[in-house]
Amino acid sequence: xxxFLFESPDFNLYSKxxxxxxxxxxxxxxxxxxxxxxxxxxxxxxxxEDETFKLCKNLNQISYKIYxxxxxxxLDFSNLRQSYFQAVSNSSWANEGYLVALEFDDEIxxxxxxxxxAFGIGFIKLDVKDINDSKIIIKAREKSNLKLITLDLxxxxxxxxxxxxxxxxxxxxxxxIERIGYKFYDEIYNDEKMQKYLKDKKII
Length: 204
Hints:
Strand content: 15-25%
Largest sheet: 6 strands, mixed
Structural class: alpha/beta
Oligomer: single chain
Shape: globular
Distance between the termini: 15 Å
Order of helices and strands: HEEHEHEHEEHHH
């Protein structure tokens, strides 16, 4: 997923996996459906020439976008609504939220479109055999503002998410394409390493 999000022209994200196990322990059900599986950020200064970027920065017109992703192996009617509303809950703070599946039944598409119209969560088909064949099936509805109360809850609850926000703040302050993405975000595998990973993990 991290490789797809980085290489896809629709996203071009630096991503970080959020491990639920690193969250502070709470009462039963307290931390349920608050953690996304993967978070990502798009740095707009990757897209601009230096002078254009400086102008956007001076005019305060730089739009950083933060994304949230909920991953499932397979979606069908037996788990669709639970998975979808888990994505709604886990992505409520982000600019865009997506539900992702490796497999899905075609019969659920009408319901996915209905839910998207009501709640705005998008849907991605992740193809592990050919990452380049992964695609956005339904585009998420963009929210212009982050929900800071929920974001702050995640910063407080989860070490991985806290580190993601810390390093995002550093990257935004530095605004240097040469610094981002190599240390603090998840590694983006080349094709050879990706194939080895998929075989080692028995994904393919």
